[in-house]
Each structure stands twice: as structure tokens, then as C-alpha cells.
């Protein structure tokens, strides 16, 4: 049977405001001792009144606009009623009939092509407290109670678990660029429920879905969905496809989903408008002010890096993954460009010089940044914000490589020293005497020595064992303390041994 998976996501993003959604308690309670960032409002005492946190609303609007949603001119907070120990009011303040925003989409990149994932809505709500289960008791920490959340509901637009994972990763990146959330799944700043059903390929109708809860990592989302596809496929093959909606939880240890209590229908929550909170009203002007203050978003940055700098898609993806890395890269490029222009100002206009050289410069900068510099950073476990190499010095380093003033092994040594001390690359090059040896007489002398000392290998080479060239270059390089230009050595050897 040819079955098609239909997947949708429901995502909660914790907004990183200073205070909570409806009271002035600190929103950093996760780093504080239990039950210390609380007040009568977020503890749900009777007679208290919530007040909307303007910063949380602004963050919600930013996120909604970045996701291309339509902001409702008026949105309404509603009470979602249910009983649970982590919810002392007996209801959660959320939004139901008039959410903050409707529609929207996010584009995910799949190799060379893009896929648009459509969204249903985005609304604001407060988080519940957190239960801690012990052997014989449950303790409640109210620090999280009242934390602002943005809930995003997607349309069932995903067809593979990998797409769902890509979407979540792109959403995390977006939230970080907007500075509305760290969106760390492991810390629960980004939480995701996935729903999935299957249908015979070609059919338009949707079948009852199964919701999967407790997905705490990107990997878990992908694995749980993959597991469900094979479980539900089996049910279809056996003629027992799910006939009602169900809820399952992901068991990380067993790597499988397990059945949970049946999900309440929305009717069970007895939603109604919260009489304590006025509607949120947005003027066109207020929305467009926020819209025009949005930063450049990841996908726009990727496209610009390709267009402006001639960077490769693969490099661009890694560069944009961390905004600080993207900024560093751009600063280095701009320094490199000034240098190129100063160096070649007789050869044309600045645009012409740039057009001729940008690809080569970009490739060097991205290459050294993403491989060698990242390697050094990873070994120390630090991010680009903490390194001692300024983008200016990094660009200068690249110009040494660009001009072949140093060969690649000398360049590695220089970069390592820059990383350790933050020193200037030209300075290190001179201090350590690492300037590439280019002078023909010196190179020829070393080549002659190697040829004289290895008559057997020379004879083999001349009989056709050409890979020996590498061996000769290695010996000459050693003779010259690793500073020679390897291409030139190769040329001289080929010439002398002909
Ligand atoms: Zn409070
Ligand atoms: Mn929710």
C-alpha cells in the first residue's frame, strides 16, 4: 500500500522578556531556586488582577511578522479551563477565537530547492508551573508559572520527518535572530507536539490524527515521526488504521511512542474571554513600526551572501547558522575588499576589482573561517564572540594567504598563534620567519640536493613512477624548513627531471 504521511506541528516558544506575561516577577526563574520568582498573580491567588506585559506582546508581533502572519487588529485573551496541580487558577490564560495572528508561512531549504510551510495561527499565552515527580510525591515549582509563550500551529504541510525537523531548526534560528527566544529545545524554550496521520497516496481526505507529545530534541521529533509512520503503516496494512484521534508520548529510552490518555476536545476547555484583560488593539502604524524594525532574517541573509559575495550554498548555510559568525564573516569580507581595492587601484574601478576577485576572496575567508578557525574554537569550546582574533586581523591573515606570502602549513601556524595571543598576523609571520620562500635560486639549490641524494628514486621517476614527485617535494620542503612554495618546487622538479 502506498501511504502518504500528513504531519503538522504545534510549537510553544518561550519568550525571553524580563518579566512574566501578566505580573512583574522575573522571567529568569529557571536559574533561581524553586518558588522564588513568584507573586500572588502567578501563584493564582484569588482577587489578583493580571496586567499584560507589553514587551511580550511586541515579541509575539515580531515573531508573527517574521513568519509572514497577518496581525489581528484586535485580539482577545481567553481562559482555557482545566484542572492540574501546576495550574492553580484552574485555567490558563491563552487566546482562542481571536489570536494575535493568523496565517503565515516559513520557507525551509531542502538542498537546492525551497519548500513553503503554511501556518494556521500564532497566539500568546502563559506557561503553567512545573511538576517534579518523585517516588512518593510530586513537588511544584511555580517559577515557570506565568512565563510568556508564543504558540505556533502549522498547517499539516509536512510530508517527511526530516521536513519537520528542518522547520523547527529554521524556526529556532528565526527566534534567535529576532532575539525573542533562545529557543533551546533541551531547555524547554522550544517545545513541540507533532501530529501525524497517513492516507493512501492520491487521496485528498484527512484521516484521524495521532498527536505525539514529549518531544525534547530535534532528533526526538524526527525519530518519533519515523516510528509512527512505520507503526501506522502496519495498522493500515492490517486493515486496522486509526479511527479516532489519539495521543501518544515519545519514550526516549525505548525509542518508541506509547499510548497516553485521550486528548480533550477544545469544547472540554470551556474557553471564554478573560473578563480581567482588555482586548489587544493594534493600529496599522504600530504594526508597520515593528515590521520596519525587523532585522535581516536568515533566509534573506543566505540569498544575499550568495548574490553579493558569491559564496557557495553550503558555506552560506553554516555561516548564517549563527548570526555572530555571519557578522564576523561580513566584517572580514569588507576589510578584505578594502585591501583588494588599495592593492589593485590601478586596475579598474572598485566595482570592477571586486567583481573580478570576490569569489576567490570569499572562498578563502569562508574556507579558513569554517574549517581551521572553527576547529580551534571547537577545541577550546568557545564561540566566535570570545575569540581574540579580530575580523580585521583575520582579513589581514587571509590577504597573506591570498598573496601566497605564506604557504598553507605556515598559515596554520600563524592562525594558531593569532588564536592564542590575538597578535597581528604579519607580525607573527616576520617574528617566526614564516615568509614563503619564493626565490628561484634557493629553491633550485634545494631541488638539486634532493635529486643528488636520491638516485634510485630519480631513476624510478624517470621510468614513469610520477607519484614520486610528492616525495621529492616533501624532502625539499624539509630542507627549506617548510617555508617553500610547494607549487614552485613541483615545477622545478618536473623541469629538472625531464
Ligand atoms: Zn508573579
Ligand atoms: Mn498552548
From TrEMBL:
GO terms for biological process: translation. It is an enzyme of class 6 (ligase). HAMAP family: GatB. Keywords: ATP-binding, Ligase, Nucleotide-binding, Protein biosynthesis. This is Aspartyl/glutamyl-tRNA(Asn/Gln) amidotransferase subunit B. Its EC number is 6.3.5.-. Pfam families: GatB_N, GatB_Yqey. InterPro entries: Asn/Gln-tRNA_amidoTrfase_suB/E, Asn/Gln-tRNA_Trfase_suB/E_cat, Asn/Gln_amidotransferase, Asn/Gln_tRNA_amidoTrase-B-like, GatB, GatB_Yqey_C_2, Gln-tRNA_amidoTrfase_suB_CS, Gln_synth/guanido_kin_cat_dom.
